[in-house]
Every structure is written in C-alpha cells, then in structure tokens.
C-alpha cells in the first residue's frame, strides 16, 4: 500500500474516532484507539516508536518517540489541544526528516470538528491525483 492510500485510512479513522469519542480526551486514549482502528483495517501500527538521530557524527538511539508509525511508512503525531501552532507543524516535519518519512499527519483531537484538526505534511512525496 502506498503512503497516500495509508493516509486515506488514517484520515477516515481519525474522523470516525472523533465522532465516536468526541474531543478533549488524553492523547494516549486517541493513540490506543487509532492504533486498533488502523490495525482493524489491515495496517501495521507501531506505538511510541524510538527514532534514532545522528548529529555531528554521533548517533543517539532515542532521539525522539513517534506517537504512531503506520506500515513503516507514515508517521502520526497526536495532539489534544485547543489550537495547533506553527511549532507543532515544524516539529512533525523535523521528525519526518530525521526518520526518513515522506508523509506525516498531525492529528488534533482537541477541536470541535475533526476536519479542522487534520494536518497532512509531505516531504518528497508526490500529491495524490485530484478527483
């Protein structure tokens, strides 16, 4: 499955979960439920994945932990806050570059409408064809 196909499953699952549970729960709740939902769709999901980084010739085995990695190809950063800042988006892009991911999602379950909490970030991946 290609990244864009995985992305469609992620967005669909996030919307369904938000409708079912509502906004404002802890990020860990959404992480657990989203993981199970995606696994139910036949995707492999890893939670709290340590990502190694290299800096000036040094390797750090646990530079950061990705909330979710789907099929080893798409990274998801989860939030449950009233507002996403530019810093949150830049953080995801940095995680993507350090981990070698071409597609990432910043999902904010703290908003009233999930469509307002979905941010798709691309780094070196072609956009899917339009309708």
Detailed description of the structure:
The chain has one domain: Trna Endonuclease, Chain: A, domain 1. The protein has 131 residues and is of the alpha+beta class. β2 and β3 form a beta hairpin. The two termini are 19 Å apart. The chain has a five-stranded mixed sheet. The mean pLDDT is 92. α1 crosses α2. The chain is globular. The longest helix has 19 residues. The chain contains three helices and five strands.
Architecture, CATH level 2?
A: 3-Layer(aba) Sandwich
Side by side, the strands of the main sheet go 1-2-3-4-5
CATH class: Alpha Beta
Tally of separate helices:
3
Count of the separate structural domains? 1
**What is the general shape?**
globular
CATH topology term:
Trna Endonuclease, Chain: A, domain 1
